[in-house]
Design brief:
single chain, 375 residues, 16 helices, Growth Hormone, Chain: A, mainly alpha
Length: 375
């Protein structure tokens, strides 16, 4: 099988994995609150969900460069995620939920090696990452529809939904067997020397992306809590999460193609600017309908920034693609830990206070992005 099919194969794995992941994700903040957790616990969950995995992402990328093999890391990454989703079934406290969700994210060590293979398998990087993201987020849409159906129609309890979600995620393992791994030159340098030798333009962009992660850190978990406050039920938050993923999936490929045509930086600037306006909007929102519009636009922000940020890293990388992609994930992931905790503290004071903080950081990251140099 030609390597150009790698994008679709990884997309299929992401599709099944995200069906499982996003059957669970919109229920997590309410699961935490039902066990006695507070806004700080939700903030810790949103931060740790990405933060703990960041160390393993850079190690996955670096070791895959070192040994000259990447596909094996992708397979075991998905396998680890599946195992810890099953372990969520035995959680008896909100602390255990956070622990299992955080360790499940160790499976994200697959991300850097996977993205390096995608970059090596396509000439149009923005389009390739856009296709991968679209299939990933399409799985999120299916997962959200399933959880909505099971929760609303059959009144399934959360643990039963988790069991079904983990079982579906097993299917993510099979497409990886058919991936044809491109050959590449092994990196024989140690990790710290490898980071030191990265292009300065890449390191600056990763710094900017890290600052952006201080305000865009898994914010949707707090938005789900807001949706419940507006509606008084759990159906509205799940519907909002579905809307978010529809916007993200539908526009991922168009914005990937646009970035191939006009440049990654221009699309990212537009995405950062839209996030600034959306975060300001959340300060003043007072009804569910306007809230739904802003939540949909937040999905559009992800379509503009998520895949294109990874494509930009690939553009600025040289020969250590796994390590450099892992470095990007490491910095942006670590930033989410303090971001989530700060947001949780501010949320307990007042949601508007949290969004003021987010808006300020969004403005700073937008200014910093303007000074990023293209390849």
């Amino acid at each position: 099988m030609k390597k150009r099919y790698n994008v679709e194969l990884f997309g299929a794995s992401s599709f099944f994995n995200d069906i499982g992941s996003d059957m669970i994700a919109p229920l997590l903040p309410f699961y935490i609150l039902s066990m006695g957790g507070t806004g700080i616990a939700v903030g810790l969950l949103s931060g740790m969900r990405e933060g703990l995995s960041s160390l393993f992402k850079i190690l996955g990328g670096y070791i895959s460069d070192k040994i000259g093999k990447r596909k094996i890391f992708v397979f075991f990454g998905y396998l680890i995620s599946v195992v810890f989703r099953f372990l969520l079934l035995i959680a008896g406290s909100w602390q255990q939920v956070i622990a299992f969700v955080s360790f499940e994210r160790i499976g994200k060590s697959r991300d850097a090696p996977r993205d390096a293979i995608i970059e090596d398998s396509t000439k149009k990087t923005g389009t390739g990452f856009g296709i991968s993201q679209m299939m990933d987020t399409s799985g999120a849409i299916i997962g959200t529809i399933l959880v909505l159906f099971l929760f609303w129609k059959f009144n399934f309890e959360i643990k039963k939904i988790i069991l079904i979600a983990a079982s579906i995620a097993i299917l993510s393992l099979f497409p990886i067997f058919f991936v044809k791994e491109p050959k590449f030159r092994r990196n024989r340098k140690n990790l710290f020397k490898s980071i030191g030798l990265m292009p300065s333009k890449l390191k600056y962009f990763v710094f900017v992306a890290g600052v952006f992660s201080l305000c865009n850190f898994g914010l949707y978990m707090f938005l789900l809590l807001m949706a419940k406050e507006f509606s008084g039920n759990l159906i509205a938050p799940i519907m909002m999460y579905l809307l978010f993923n529809i916007f993200w999936a539908f526009f991922s490929i168009p914005f990937g193609k646009l970035s191939d045509k006009i440049g990654r930086k221009k699309v990212l600037i537009a995405g950062y600017l839209l996030f600034l306006f959306v975060s300001i909007g959340f300060i003043f929102v007072s009804d569910l309908y306007l809230f739904a519009v802003l939540f949909g636009l937040y999905g559009l922000v992800y379509a503009m920034t998520n895949a294109n940020s990874r494509a930009f890293v690939a553009d600025l990388s040289d020969t250590m693609k796994g390590t450099e992609m892992g470095f990007y994930y490491f910095v942006t992931g670590i930033a989410t830990i303090p971001a989530g905790l700060i947001a949780g503290v501010l949320w307990n004071i007042n949601p508007a206070t949290m969004f003021i903080y987010i808006s300020v950081i969004a403005f700073i990251s937008l200014v910093l992005l303007c000074f990023v140099k293209n390849k």
